[in-house]
Design brief:
It contains 6 helices and 9 strands; from the N terminus they run H-E-H-E-E-E-E-E-H-E-H-H-E-H-E. It has about 210 residues and is of the alpha/beta class. Strand 3 and strand 4 form a beta hairpin. It starts with 5 loop residues before the first helix and ends in a 9-residue tail after the last strand.
Length: about 210
């Protein structure tokens, strides 16, 4: 998990695998303020009256791992972790498969630096995202960003610039403002592809979407 804001964790009790008694789910997330245990944080919101069942009531076996940097292995995959600037502890992840040379980066909510985005790409974005197959990042408008500059998000243009400097092959936009319509998202993707200038492909991430190299 990138971070524990409500819109990123509310789907856990509806995740079909943890509704099976023989399942094992490991949740990786950043350390919490005050050194609170991840399990305690989840138990604090997954309980009555906010929700009818508790974490321990779910049939699956759920465990927690705290990470804010470094890397770890999962089968044939290597997962890199980097701290992301956002409101609250937040991680970005890069997953590499050595056998195929493919990489996917998951970078959710992050604060766009002020000023010209072409001059303000943080060096670690280039190292985390370099040569990856797919980058996913939040999107909004420049006008909206001015109104909400401290809420920890970024513009479509900034996402495209990060992807361009990192040399990605595909960029998937997500985490749109709930007020944005499907037409707005389609127009944003079209604009993003214009900005990318054919260097890479920009798409909108959608529920159920799959992709392959």
């Amino acid at each position: 998990m990138s971070h524990l804001h409500w819109d990123h964790v509310q789907g856990i009790p509806f995740f079909p695998p943890v509704l099976s008694a023989d399942s094992q789910l490991t949740i990786v997330a950043p350390p919490q303020p005050g050194d609170d245990e991840l399990a305690d944080v989840f138990n604090a919101f997954l309980r009555p009256p906010m929700f009818p069942v508790r974490l321990d009531d779910l049939p699956g076996n759920i465990s927690f791992v705290t990470r804010s940097s470094g890397s770890f292995s999962h089968g044939a995959l290597q997962v890199g972790v980097v701290a992301v600037q956002h409101n609250g502890a937040t991680n970005g992840y890069r997953i590499d498969e050595a056998a195929t040379g493919q990489s996917v980066a998951y970078i959710s909510d992050h604060q766009q630096p002020c000023g010209d985005p072409t001059l303000s790409i943080r060096p670690y974005w280039r190292s985390v995202m370099a040569s990856m197959y797919s980058s996913m990042t939040p999107s909004t408008t420049t006008q909206s960003l001015r109104r909400r500059r401290l809420r920890g998000h970024s513009t479509v243009r900034y996402a495209v610039e990060v992807a361009r400097q990192a040399g990605v092959k595909e960029l998937y936009l997500f985490h749109h403002d709930p007020s944005h319509s499907d037409e707005w998202v389609a127009a944003a993707v079209a604009d993003a592809n214009d900005i990318a200038g054919g260097q890479f492909v920009v798409r909108a991430a959608t529920e159920g979407l799959t992709f392959s190299p």
